DNA sequence: GTAGAGGTGGTAGTTACTTCA
DNA sequence: GTTGAAGTAACTACCACCTCT
């Protein structure tokens, strides 16, 4: 049997896969018209707030559970959409991932499907999209976690090395004094622009600082927001540095 | 203005069926 | 031919929002 709708010519093998027990996926346009005609404002079979009216349940039974012979089929029907139908639905989904009632009816008519089928397809498609996105996000966070773990290890090692170096008298003899010392007024953290290791030490001492970017929660592993540095008395520097290396945490 | 009922459309979770290795 | 996994159409339950009374 051939049906023609839109630019799509479909061959339906009545004894084959296209036609399953019960509702035909590619039911003739006349039947669709009927279906559309029956689509009063109450016709949405889905989404019934858990309180499905008797009419709706009845209609549901009529449209979904009636087999070819008109009897009730115990099992629900599951019908494969044709490639053309799926392609068209995909195309529409790309444009907008939800449909208003008019669009739903029009699309159903065009595809020779029941509006309910179009509705279900869009529901499932949104669910798949969300699942995919979740997987992508999960993968991204996993990579971030790995990177941070590596960075943490590296910094821990650096701290150990610095601690060892600190114990050696040569450390003080070869150490260049910091040229500019600054302190953040919020956290009282000290940093030095001339020290090559200060940044590393800082991040090693405060490994969690950059873990959550409060100003941009979407970038949970982004760099910490810059503190506003203010110059401090150089004579404090040694004390602060000492305290930081001893593990002192500003409150 | 507001509370309650009913309709509608969304999501989450599940089931049942198809397809394929 | 059988079987298990994956994909997906269709379902239920619930929620939020809107409209009407």
UniProtKB/TrEMBL annotation:
Residues 51-64 have a biased composition (Basic and acidic residues). Residues 72-132 form the Homeobox domain. InterPro entries: HD, HD-ZIP_Homeobox_LZ_Class_II, HD-ZIP_N, Homeobox_CS, Homeodomain-like_sf, Leu_zip_homeo. PROSITE patterns: HOMEOBOX_1, HOMEOBOX_2. It comes from the Eukaryota. Residues 33-76, 207-236 are annotated as: Disordered. The keyword Coiled coil applies. Keywords: Coiled coil, DNA-binding, Homeobox, Nucleus, Transcription, Transcription regulation. Residues 39-50 have a biased composition (Polar residues). Residues 220-232 have a biased composition (Pro residues). Its main location: nucleus. It is found in: Nucleus. Residues 138-165 form a coiled coil. GO terms for molecular function: DNA-binding transcription factor activity, RNA polymerase II-specific; sequence-specific DNA binding. Residues 74-133 bind DNA. Signal peptide: none annotated. GO terms for cellular component: nucleus. Belongs to the HD-ZIP homeobox family. Class II subfamily. This is Homeobox domain-containing protein. It comes from Daucus carota subsp. sativus.
């Amino acid at each position: 049997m051939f049906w023609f709708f839109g630019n799509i010519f479909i061959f339906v093998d009545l004894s084959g896969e296209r036609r399953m027990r019960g509702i035909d996926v590619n039911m003739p346009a006349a039947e669709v018209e009927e279906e559309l005609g029956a689509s009063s404002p109450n016709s949405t079979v889905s989404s019934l707030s858990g309180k499905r009216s008797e009419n709706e349940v009845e209609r549901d039974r009529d449209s979904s559970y009636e087999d070819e012979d008109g009897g009730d089929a115990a099992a629900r029907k599951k019908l494969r959409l044709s490639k053309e139908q799926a392609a068209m639905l995909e195309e529409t989904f790309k444009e907008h991932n939800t449909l208003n009632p008019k669009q739903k009816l029009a699309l159903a008519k065009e595809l020779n499907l029941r509006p309910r089928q179009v509705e279900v397809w869009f529901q499932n498609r949104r669910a798949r999209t969300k699942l995919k996105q979740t997987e992508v996000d999960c993968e991204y966070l996993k990579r971030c976690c790995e990177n941070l773990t590596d960075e943490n290890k590296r910094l821990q090692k650096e701290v150990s090395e610095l601690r060892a170096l600190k114990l050696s008298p040569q450390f003080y003899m070869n150490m260049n004094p910091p040229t500019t010392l600054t302190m953040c007024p919020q956290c009282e953290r000290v940093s030095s622009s001339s020290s090559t290791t200060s940044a590393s030490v800082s991040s090693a001492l405060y490994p969690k600082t950059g873990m959550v970017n409060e100003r941009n929660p979407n970038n949970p592993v982004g760099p910490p927001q810059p503190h506003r540095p203010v110059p401090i008395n150089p004579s404090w520097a040694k004390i602060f540095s000492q305290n930081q290396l001893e593990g002192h945490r500003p409150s």
